[in-house]
Every structure is written in structure tokens, then in C-alpha cells.
Design brief:
Blueprint (H helix, E strand, L loop, with lengths): L1 H25 L3 H23 L7 H24 L2
Length: about 80
């Protein structure tokens, strides 16, 4: 079973890389292009980390330990950007 999950992660990573290359050539809006490539890169990193660290078997509290600081940092960034005008 573990090898099938490994193949799935590998295929997802390959598809995400192809999507990143397509977005970089096809999209003319630099902000959308950058955001899409960053989103693909983060999703690839999350898939690899979840596989190698066996995070899919962890309880939901582990997810909360990631989401709560992420929400806090997002709030700080929004505050800084909003204060700039």
C-alpha cells in the first residue's frame, strides 16, 4: 500500500510541475502567475511532507497546530498591508 501512495505523490508532483510550467507560459498577468506558482509549490511541499512524515495518520489536533499560527501570521500581514494604504 505504501508504494501506491508513493506513486500517487510522485504523479501529483509531476502534474503540478507541468501545471506550473503551463501557467508560466500561458498567463500574462504577473500577479496571478506568481500566486498560482506559489500555490502549486506549497501544495507539492505539503503532499511530500504528509507522505514522508506520515501526517495523514495523525489526529486533527496536529492540523490545528498548523492552522492557528498561519491564521495569526495572515492577520499580521493583512494589518501591515492595510496600514500602508
Amino acid at each position: 500500500m505504501k508504494s501506491s501512495v508513493l506513486v500517487a505523490v510522485w504523479i501529483y508532483t509531476l502534474v503540478a510541475v507541468v501545471a506550473e510550467v503551463y501557467v508560466s507560459y500561458a498567463v500574462s498577468n504577473i500577479f496571478f502567475e506568481t500566486g498560482a506558482i506559489i500555490a502549486f509549490a506549497i501544495s507539492q511541499a505539503a503532499a511530500v511532507v504528509a507522505f514522508y512524515m506520515n501526517l495523514k495518520e495523525e489526529p486533527g489536533t496536529l492540523i490545528l497546530m498548523v492552522i492557528i499560527p498561519l491564521m495569526f501570521i495572515s492577520g499580521l500581514l493583512i494589518t501591515v498591508v492595510a496600514s500602508q494604504g
